[in-house]
Each structure stands twice: as C-alpha cells, then as structure tokens.
Amino acid sequence: MADATARTFPVPTGLRWSAATAAFQVEGARRADGRGRSIWDDFVDTGRLVKDRSTAEPGPDSYHRSAEDIALLHGLGVDRYRFSISWVRVQPDGRGAAQPAGLAYYDRLVDGLLDAGIVPFPTLYHWDLPSPLEVGGGWLERDTALRFAEYAEIVGAALGDRVKNWYTINEPVSTSLQGYAIGELAPGRQLLFDSLPTVHHQLLAHGRAAAILRGYGATAVGIVNNHTWVQPATDSEADQIAAHVYDLIHNRLFADPVLTGAYPDVAALGIEMPVQDGDMELISTASEFYGVNFYNPTTIAAAPEGAPVPFVQVPTPGVAHTGFGELWGIQPHALTAFLTDAARRYGDRLPPIVIGENGASFPEPDEVSGPLDDSRRIDYLASHIGAVADAVAQGVRVDEYTVWSLLDNFEWADGFTQRFGLVHVDQRMSKRTPKASYEWYRALIAETKSAQARA
User: Fold this and answer.
1) Which of 80, 260, 308, 403 could cross-link 18 (Cys pair, CB 3.0–4.6 Å)?
2) CA pair distance 106, 109, nearest whole angstrom
C-alpha cells in the first residue's frame, strides 16, 4: 500500500483542509420525507442519459447514514465539510412553504458537524433545480433567481444561527454550458449560445442569496465556479483565437461580473446578457472569498469551418489523464497558472481563494474487501496541493483546499462508473471503506497542523 506519511511537496502554511460532497450525489432517499423532483430526477429517470443507467439509489445513502460521514470527517481531521443542501428537500416545488422533514435533516447534520468540531460549509445550489421551475423556463428565466432568493431566505432563517460560511451557486459554468448549451447534464437542453441568459440569472441568484445570508449572520459568502487553464493547441492564429473565445466563455464570463461588476466583451459573438438596472452592483458586491473548482487544463483548437461553435477541445499533449479520459489531462502547473493569472488580472478585487473542489477519478472495483491502494489519486492530490503552494509562493492568497470527494458517489451523467472518493462506497450496500488516500490525507492534515502548532 502507498506510504500515507510520505510527502515531498510544498504545503502552504495555515491552509485550511476540507472534503466535499453534494446532495443529489450522496443522499439517496429520493422519495423520502416529502422531497420533490429536481431536474436530475428527470434526467436519470429517462433511463438512457446516464452511462450505466443508474439512478443515484441507494449510493452512499447519506440521508440515513450521515453519522457515518461525520465520523469519517472527524477521523480525517478536516477543518470544514463542504456539503450541499437540496432545494427540493427544502421546497419540493421550488416555491412556497418549507418541508419540515427536509430542513430537519440539515439541522441534524449541522449540529452533528459542530459537535465533532467541524465547521459546516454548505452550498445552497449544487445543480438540483426543482422540476416545476424548469418547466417554467429554469435558469433561462429571471424569475428563477427570485425563487432562489426565497429558498435562501428559508435556509438562512433555519440554519443561520449556526452556519456562518456559505457557497451560493456551484459551477454555474457547468449548468450553463453542459446543462443548457450542449445537453450533457441536466436539464439536457441543446441551445448553444442561446443558453447564455442562464449565466446572468445564476449570478443574479448568487447576489441576492449572498445579501440574504449575510442578513442572517453569515460572515463568509461566495460563489464557486469550475475554472480551467486554457491553452491553444498550436501557435497558429486560429487556435489562439479559439482558445481566447473559450477562455472568455468558460472562465471570464463567470468571474468578471462577480469580481469587476462587468461582463467581458462578448458582443462579437452576438451575445447580449439580459442585464437590468442594479443587477451588476448586486452581483459584484464584495465577497469574503472566491471559490475555484479545478480538475484539469483545457486545450483548444479552432473548429472546422461551418461548425456551430468556433472551438473544439482536444487532448492536452504529453500528459497522463484520469479515468474520465484523455480530455481530463493531469497537469498540476495548470492550476498554478490559473491562480497566478487570476491574481494578476483581478488584483485587489480578487478576495482570498478557496479551492472548493479538486480530485480525480480512476478505475476501481465496485466491491472491496479492505483498503484500496489508490496511489494515483494520492499522486494527483499531492501534486495539486503543491501547485497551490507554488501559487501562494508567487503571492496568491489561498485559504482553503477541498478534496472532491469524501465518498465515491453518483457522478452525474456517468452514474456510478467514476469514483472520486477518499472512501470507497459499495453503491448497492452503501458500505464505506476508507482508501489509502484517506489515510494519506489524514496524515497530511495531522502533520501540517502539528507543524503549525510547533511554529
């Protein structure tokens, strides 16, 4: 088994440690206690859009087994736990009164974490839009941002006395581009550039929710996006232009409004965002942190003439890749490059960064009889923590690092075919078995905390 105490990479001093999950991916119990339907229920229930035709049941079944999750987190020694609150457990139809049983689950979870000495760091929205809102247009409609504010009000009132740290929206880029533009994720629409009003409405929802949560005593509120370091496939002018356009749409279209109060210039692409008076001021209200999810670099080439979009993603040359395939290249210095570029671009408008997700999936068996030796995951995590340290050494402030994921879980359109967890989960029996990476992360956290105490 891999040596869990070995470490030959730099670690930033004072970094907080966390692990993450998301409600739909780990909770199971889709029909329990009045839970409503989300766009992911609709997506998986078609029976053909998920790779292995799985339905997230039972999976880790955290709705019934959260005490086991808390024990695992306590064993790791993490400072914080990033989990998400299911909108449809709280408001089954996305509007109206709260569902008491749903709120009670999160109430118990928060209390359990606090009792274990772990700071709860929930995400209000991790992709589970209530189905009735999608029928009404979903994130294409401004009204969804208003409904989200009502949901934030309910959750803030219920948990704000104990929860002081919040993520508002998770990965709006994935919802907009994969969910509404090309249909790889729920709700499965294929609108291409016509999907982009969803960007503005998610950012508006973030701004409204952040103000509400602060009204309930929150001290740290921020959005988190899936960012990537974009590289042209060649030095050709066509590839460089294509990479620039992709960077605008994947990274800057989401970061610029939050950090500068303005969208990047996308008029040349025929894009006009549905901005109304006061929107940009609300969206760009200063946040206590900016969340970055990072998995891989993105290499872009010019698309063939006549293609519906001007770019195409190609494998990053000369790098290994994760279990997701050759487009998920492993290039740790790309994380350093993204972080240092963001610091240069946004300057003092960039608040402290929180790495909200970082991790890797590799092929692993569905059942195990003991701890799994996942040395490739350990190598991936170690090299990316080192990449964070390199960025910090160049002046970037990063306050927190979060592993995705605590548990093997339902990996969206890939179902149970991809495993990111520090803990193996038998998806039929919900049995949890820590992997070598769990012990490695535990040892790393203990060692760094001990070094800080000695300093």
Assistant:
1) 80
2) 5
HSE of 377 in the Cβ direction (CA atoms, 13 Å)?
32
Domains in the chain: ranges and CATH: 16-454 (3.20.20.80)
Structure tokens at 398: 């990063």
Coarse DSSP helix, strand, coil percentages of the chain, rounded to the nearest 5 percent = 45, 15, 40
User: How distant, in Å, are the alpha carbons of 236, 301, 302 from that of 233?
Assistant: 8, 5, 9
Q: At what angle do helices 436-454 and 375-393 cross, to 10 degrees?
A: 30
| pLDDT band at residue 6 using 50, 70 and 90 as cut-offs | very low
> What's the pLDDT tens digit per position in 9-18?
899 999 999 9
DSSP string covering 61-88: -HHHHHHHHHHHHHHHT-SEEEEE--HH
**Which residues are CB-neighbours of 71 under 8 A, at least 6 positions away?**
116
State pTM to two decimals: 0.97
CA distances from 325 to 213, 229, 247, 321, 359 (A): 39, 18, 21, 6, 14
Please tell me the number of Cα atoms within 13 Å of 168 on its side-chain side. 31
DSSP 349: G
Query: Known catalytic residue: 357?
Result: yes
Q: What is the pLDDT of residues 253-285, one digit of tens each?
A: 999 999 999 999 988 788 889 999 999 999 999
Q: Is 153 helix (H, G, I), strand (E, B) or coil?
A: helix
Tens digits of per-residue pLDDT, 85-95? 999 999 999 99
Could you say which of 357, 400, 411, 439 is catalytic? Answer: 357
Is 68 known to be catalytic?
Answer: no
Tell me the pLDDT tens digit for each residue of 141-175.
Answer: 999 999 999 999 999 999 999 999 999 999 999 99
Biggest distance spanned by C-alpha atoms of the chain: 62
What's the confidence (pLDDT) of residue 347?
98
Residue of 153, 171, 400, 411 marked active site? 171
Residue 2 has pLDDT above 80, yes or no: no
